[in-house]
Amino acid sequence: MSQQQQVSARKQQELQTQYSTYKNNLQQIAQKIGDVEQETEEHKLVLETLAPVSQDRKCFRMVNGVLVERTVKDVVPALQTNLDGLKKVLDDLLKQYKTKQDEMEKWKKKNNVQVVQQ
Fold first, then answer.
1. Distance between CA 80 and CA 77 in Å, rounded?
2. What's the CA gap between 93 and 30, in Å, rounded?
3. Largest CA distance in the chain
4. Cα Rg for the chain, rounded, in angstroms?
5. Opening angle at CA 23, ends 99 and 42, nearest 5
6. Dist. CA 58–CA 21, nearest whole Å
7. Distance CA 14, CA 46 (A)
8. Cβ-based neighbours of 29, under 8 Å, separated by 6 or more
9. How far is CA 72 from CA 58, 64, 65, 69, 94, in A?
10. Is pLDDT of 28 > 80?
C-alpha cells in the first residue's frame, strides 16, 4: 500500500468517526427532546384535569419520590411554573438540535461527504 493510500484511508476513517459523532449527538438531543415533550404533555394533562376542580380539594403530588398531600390551589402554581420551565428547555433543545444539524451539513459540504446509507 502506498503512503498516499494510507493517508487517504486514515482520512476516510477520521471522517467516518466525525460523522458518527455528529449523528450520535443529534440522536441524544432528539431523545432529550422526546423526553421533555412527554413531560410537558403530562403537566398539561394534570393542569387540564385540575382546572374544573375546587381549589380547596385535596390532591397528591410526588416530590422527590415522596407522595405529599396538598390542595389544588397549592399544586397548580407549581405545576404551571414547571410547565413554563419545560417549555423553555424544549425551545433551547430545539435550537441546539437545529444548530448541530446545520453544523453537520456545513461539515459535510466542507469535507465533500456523501452519505451512502443513513
1. 5
2. 8
3. 81
4. 24
5. 70
6. 49
7. 48
8. 93, 96, 97, 100
9. 6, 19, 19, 10, 32
10. yes
N residues, the chain? 118
Cα 24 to Cα 29, 31, 96: the distances in Å are 9, 10, 14
Of the candidates 48, 43, 49, 47, the residue with the CA atom closest to the CA atom of residue 87:
43
Give per-residue pLDDT as tens, 37-75.
Answer: 999 999 999 999 999 999 999 999 888 999 999 999 999
C-alpha cell of 37? 415533550
Q: Name the pTM for this structure.
A: 0.82
- Measure CA 6 to chain center: 39
Placement of cell 459540504 in the chain: 109
Q: Which cell numbers hold the place of 100?
A: 448541530
Pairing of strands 66-71, 58-63: antiparallel
Calpha distance 102→94 (Å, rounded): 12
